[in-house]
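Homework help board

Subject: predicted structure for assignment chain

Our instructor gave us this sequence and asked us to write out the predicted structure in token form, then describe one feature. I got the tokens but I'm not sure how to describe them. Can anyone check?
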Amino acid sequence: MTERVPTLLKPFIQKFYSYSINPLSLGVSDFCQVDESGKGTNKDEGQQGKDLNFPYVVMLNPVYGKGRKTNLNNNDEALSSFETFDEFINDLLTIPSGTVLFDIFACPDPHSALDGTKIQRIGRIISTSEMIVSTPHDGLFFRHQKKEEDFELHPEWREQVKATCSPDGGKTVGTIDRLVGSTIMEQLIDANQFIDFERTAIHT
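My token output:
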């Protein structure tokens, strides 16, 4: 949910708008198609998903390597050097099993994007083995869900995401849908302004 990309990629990003009005924002309602026991929900049964409860944003915030100085800190330079990309892949292959890779955060709706009391850390992604290099013939396929599918279930969000906001007192101004990921939520997380259910559970 960000357009903060290397300069080299910006012309390609514009092409994505022919596919979706939110090409860099993926839908998350598909996560709710089945419950924890594998039973289909209303959306899965063709009842328009009236009872689905899903957040506006699910954000993966990197934990592994955070604060380390690497050759990948400058995105433009990293893209212009194949050796640098090679180094990135080699670095991934050194990650041991049991490493915390990402914290998972959720924002319930567009109105809550600027409110740290509504941003929630809901989990973590932890490696369960060493990294394995895949090949084009492995048969892995990941379907990207359009954000428009979420808006069909929450039509009120279509207008809410267009609200103009500034997370830093006017220095950065934009709409919620353009700023929510890389700017708004990252700043709240860096400032430790979020609900941490794991930390709350430990202290109760």
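Reply (TA_rk): Your tokens look well-formed. For the description, you could write something like this. Confidence is low (pLDDT under 50) at residues 69-74, 76-82. That's the kind of observation they're looking for.
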